[in-house]
Design a protein that fits this description.
globular, about 425 residues, disordered N terminus, 16 strands, Purple Acid Phosphatase, chain A, domain 2
């Protein structure tokens, strides 16, 4: 199936949704029936806790306060039954190269990239504590949630040997998106496990936290809503075959559960399952990582229970729907708003040099009572207290950076659309009472 990166199939439905939302008011309505419920999706949050984007470092506002407000907003929503976070929780690494990669000879080389990758003590003293403070708000609400690690959540990231900066073209013509100035690799998840490990404060003893691999670097959660029991699996970035084998075992242990996969790097902003060469883990270490197309082939399309994939990493948004091996649709959704910096402009920043996220996150409203079950996707800002469709300057603020080839109408529709879950009832049976 051709990827729906332009959202042509959903443009009319998205614009209609915007009109309905505007008529109903700015606050999305709470669910009123058991067969209607919402999943919240938290995009990349690393800029909120970046130690450089706080007032004590001379920035115009405290980025962390936007993350705190976002978590408070989600925690207060009675209709939200589950929360998925796509990774990049904090910004910086704490090691130059992790021991496991160093032992395999995957050390760092000197490239223009290396200067910007230096680890900092602020990772552990500012950024990780800021993330913990925010997630404690979500945890206190009692809502089940899962967090997939992103590349910034690894202990180390560096310019990997074997991919030097290109010397055959002038420096000013080198494009980092092509890997012209080197390729980044990552390693070590001790920092991530210290916060989101299977024996940590957020997940230890939780009945909905049902399995994990590598100490919680990959994890599985279950939740019940709309008469169904759902399975949610978080996977580390570009997961290797042992991770996929574990995920297969979890799916087999929960037969018939509609399953959502959340992983960091999967779709780009054009709706392609393609990584950016500057940080393509499968390119830098193919024996230990699968790229997105391999993940689709080996896991997502091979198990009919998987009906949705959520991801971040690539700035912007996209949607892709493909039939799996069984002829059933899989809805693959990217949302990453980390480059949005209007909140900093409002606070007095001189330019758009720093993105924060502006409080935007996704609300996926399930209606399993409809003749054809649907998911209505809305994009809401906890900072501006508005839906994307109610924000007059939405396209002028963000489109040029995220989707310059879209019209304003297409850009609005990309952040507010409805998915029809064709065949959902035939594919999945309600949970036994």
């Amino acid at each position: 199936m051709v990827p729906m990166s332009t959202f042509s199939k959903h443009l009319f439905a998205g614009l209609l949704l915007l009109c309905l939302a505007a008529c109903a008011g700015t606050e999305p309505p709470a669910a009123t029936r058991e067969d209607r419920f919402t999943i919240a999706v938290i995009p990349d949050t690393q800029n909120y806790v970046d130690y450089r984007l706080q007032r004590d470092q001379g920035f115009v506002l405290d980025g962390k306060e936007l993350l705190i407000a976002q978590m408070q907003d989600i925690a207060a929503r009675d209709d939200v039954v589950f929360v998925a976070a796509v990774g990049d929780v904090w910004q910086h690494s704490s090691l130059a190269v992790d021991p496991a990669h160093a032992a395999r000879g995957k050390g760092a080389i000197d490239t223009p990239l290396q200067a910007g990758l230096a680890p900092t003590p602020f990772t552990k003293s500012v950024e990780i504590p800021g993330a913990i403070e925010a997630y404690r708000i979500l945890a206190a609400s009692g809502k089940p949630f899962g967090v997939a690690p992103g590349n910034h959540d690894y202990d180390a990231f560096w310019s990997v040997a074997g991919f030097p900066a290109r010397s055959d073209i002038p420096e000013e013509e080198r494009d980092p998106r092509r890997g012209d100035i080197g390729v980044i690799h990552v390693g070590g998840l001790d920092n991530f496990r210290s916060v989101f490990g299977d024996d940590g404060e957020f997940f230890r003893g939780q009945p909905w936290y049902v399995d994990s691999f590598r100490g919680g670097a990959n994890a599985a959660q279950v939740f019940e809503a709309g008469g169904y029991r759902f399975l949610h699996i978080t996977l580390e970035m570009s997961p290797g075959n042992p991770v996929l084998h574990w995920a297969e075992s979890v799916i087999r242990a929960h037969p018939g559960y509609p399953t959502i996969i959340t992983t960091h790097d999967y779709l780009n902003a054009r709706g392609e399952r393609r990584g950016v060469p500057i940080i393509d883990l499968a390119l830098g270490d193919p024996d230990h990582h699968n790229n997105a197309e391999a993940l689709w082939r080996k896991l997502v399309s091979a198990y009919d229970q998987i009906f949705m994939v959520l991801c971040g990493h690539h700035h912007g948004q996209s949607l892709r729907v493909d039939d799996n091996r069984y002829g059933n649709p899989v809805y693959q959704v990217l949302a990453d708003f980390q480059g949005r910096g209007q909140s900093a402009i409002d606070a007095g920043a001189p330019d758009r040099g720093w993105g924060l996220g502006d409080g935007w996150y996704r609300l996926m409203h399930f209606d399993l009572a409809a003749d054809t079950p649907t998911i209505t996707v809305e994009t809401w800002s906890s900072h501006y207290r508005r839906l994307s469709g109610d924000t007059t300057d939405y396209a002028s603020w963000y489109k040029a950076y995220e989707q310059p080839d879209m019209t304003d109408a297409e850009f609005h529709a990309a952040d507010a659309f409805t998915l029809e879950l064709e065949g959902f009832r035939e594919r999945f049976k309600p949970a036994a009472k």
